[in-house]
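Bug #77: duplicate submission created two jobs. Keeping one. Sequence:
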Amino acid sequence: MGYVYATINKDTLAHICKEKGVSSEFLASKTKLNMPRLNRWLTPTDINLPTINQAKKIAACLHIPFAGLYMNPCDIPLKRIPSVRNMRTMSGTVSTDDSSLNIAMIDVLLERDFLLSADDEFGITPPDFDPLIPDSNSVDVWADAIRKQFAIEIEKQYKCNSTRQFYLYVRDKIEAKGVFVHCFTDVTIDTARGFSIYNTLLPIIGINDEDRPPAKTFTIIHELVHLFKRESSLCNDMSSSASTLSEEVFCNAVAGELLVPKSALKIVLEHGHYFAPYSIDDIKRVADRFSVSREVIVRRLLELRKIDQREYETYTDLFRREIEEGREKRKIQRENGIKSSIPPRNMSREAFDRTSPSVSKILYQGYVNDVYSKLDIARHLNVGQNHIDKFLREVSKWNR
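Kept job's structure:
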């Protein structure tokens, strides 16, 4: 049986890889395709072509429609890789090849373009991003100023019944004031947890979709501080370790104080009769009260001198081991065909959680006004059409 080759435009394939900053090594690693063959396919003058299945793997890796490989290079909507300050300080597992990150940044930029175009079509004027920058270097002053400007209320925070609900609440508040908040995919957490791209109109906060909801909330505030400073940045360390850059330490400190104000934490500790040494259950209950991670709580306890550095490291090591052991357990269960207690993936909820609230609302409005079909929305979100009804219901809850 012969192979069916894809008569793609090889000039287009080479152009996409160059403009997106994607290396052939990355493509080979992600697609499991042979490197010499890939290099021949990336050479426009070479007569060799990939099969249909091979070309589909390449298109999926590059985050482009398969049909795009047949188009002319000038017809492919691409963006320049943005210029950002590399604030990453975690080392060891971070790859020097940023192909996945380059693809992710361009995805977010294109999504922002979609929103601006749709807003124009619907006659919507995006709010200006006009922050009142504190005339102070105080972490407490910055955290209080951001809370007030974005109307993030501690009473509403206490009423959130999960870290996910608080993440959605904070995300919605930030976008309402003219910031574009959107998740990127297919990038390891070590490579990047978040990035900011400053602009006077719809500046961007990108969040790694692989992170847990409380980590995403922390990243939003961390990157928002960069935007207040008119900085475009790329970050992967939210722990304020000894090697962390001073700018990152400040952003982490503001995020910690905003999410868990020291005055509120003291009240919770006193009223809950939590005293050192704090048990794991104590820390979990306090974290649940603020709808944040246990890591944020122990960091705040360290900053308030309720625990020392040794105790802090003991807690964080324990939490890290728990997460790693949980991942390994689930991996073994999958490999052995053991049914996991973890509920099946909720694709509509995942799509809602990673998509900018403004984009979700414009898709909903477009559907209501017969501008977008369910198929259009499914293709835009890259999910099955059978998940769109639930997605629209989720959006409608936040669109009132």
